[in-house]
Specification:
Layout lengths: L11 H11 L9 H11 L9 H11 L9
Length: 71
């Protein structure tokens, strides 16, 4: 995903080769909400890592509860 703060982000395409060394399948989805929706549609269990900004964007746009930070 790509945050709305370009000076604090890394282009996901630069991270793709690193991820491909670890994971069998890698998909870059720049929009955080689209990435979340893709993840929950692909798995029964989803872990979101990253900044509180990322978690906040997803939680506010989808109006979902994300523990332990969202109550």
């Amino acid at each position: 995903t790509t945050p709305e703060e370009p000076d604090r982000s890394v282009d996901p395409e630069k991270l793709r080769p690193i991820a491909q060394e670890v994971f069998k399948s890698v998909k870059v989805i720049r929009d955080p909400v689209e990435a979340y929706e893709h993840a929950i549609g692909s798995s029964d269990f989803v872990v979101i890592t990253g900044s509180m900004y990322l978690i906040g964007v997803i939680a506010s746009k989808l109006n979902v509860e994300m523990l332990p930070y969202w109550k």
